[in-house]
Amino acid sequence: MRQRRSPSNHPSGFSLVELLVAMAIGLVMLGALFVIYLGGVQGAGQSDNVTRMGEDASIALETIARHIRMAGYSQPNILASTASIVVGGQTLQLKDSNFSGAGVRGCDGGFTRTTAAWDALSCSNSASASDAISIRYEGDSYNTEAVTGATGQVPTDCLGQGVESNATSATDASKRFTLVESRFFINSSSELACAGNAPNNSGSVSYRSQPLVSGVEKMQLRYGVASDGYATQLGFWGNAADVDALGGTADQNWARVIAVRICLQMVSSGADQVSTIPYIDCDGTTQTPSDNFLRRSFTTTVSLRNRIGVLQ
């Protein structure tokens, strides 16, 4: 006769050790997924910062470059072929337009006083501060965005403010024309700012400034200098102090500038990097920041179209 086995007294299921092992494996998998997710979020954030800095730098560089390209411009009053002289065996066209003088003036370390008159501009020469530049040219409804002023449609400065006729013509003392001046610098909030020469409510020039682009930590300017005020070939690159030391008057020295190299050091809006990330500054040197902000440098070179071939 066959004996029947009695039911086992051991319950079916997972033991405590098996549960602990399964939980440990699950936690490891969750941890790995979290690391992958966190890395993806950080990578996306860094990519977004790089893209945003690139877009802001493009806007800032083009804004400055657009004004530098116009530096020294003035509509000719007469186009007489006989209006010329010979200097050093070279025939040069005489200045026959309203505006005369240098169209650009720069400062290492920024202007000591942003609101100073053109002839009174002085430089702070701070090695750690950003450079600054002032640009002037004859404005009209074609090279600026004209707005309605007291005398009709008038040119505008870098802030879109209307500038009325404010200067006496170099060729006709009875004629007035509009001299537009725009000054670019970096303010204390790491913003590219501009001060324009539109008159205030009392009618006087105050060079009121407004920020244009945020996230600009530093601006470095270098100037391509010709051998004299008439040459069209680049002699050397230097800073503003090098131009000021050329030996002539301020207008004579700066009239030798035929190109400007602009470098902007951009900084991210937040310190959201997991570690410090090295960057290359405007001097081409690799720098390691002391914080977790992301930085990049962007450079462009602009020629002064309206300076070449014109007697200043």
SSE layout and pairing:
Layout: H1 16-70, E1 84-87, E2 90-93, E3 104-107, E4 132-138, E5 147-149, E6 152-154, E7 167-168, E8 176-177, E9 179-186, E10 191-196, E11 209-214, E12 216-226, E13 234-238, H2 240-244, H3 250-254, E14 257-267, E15 279-280, E16 286-287, E17 295-303
Antiparallel strand pairs: 1-2, 3-4, 4-9, 5-6, 7-8, 9-10, 10-11, 12-13, 12-14, 14-17, 15-16
What does this structure look like?
It is a single chain. This protein has 312 residues and is of the alpha+beta class. It has helices spanning 16-70, 240-244, 250-254, and strands spanning 84-87, 90-93, 104-107, 132-138, 147-149, 152-154, 167-168, 176-177, 179-186, 191-196, 209-214, 216-226, 234-238, 257-267, 279-280, 286-287, 295-303. It has one domain. A five-stranded antiparallel sheet has the order 3-4-9-10-11. A four-stranded antiparallel sheet has the order 13-12-14-17. It has a two-stranded antiparallel sheet with strand order 1-2. It is elongated, with a radius of gyration of 31 Å. The N and C termini lie far apart (128 Å). The relative contact order is 0.15.
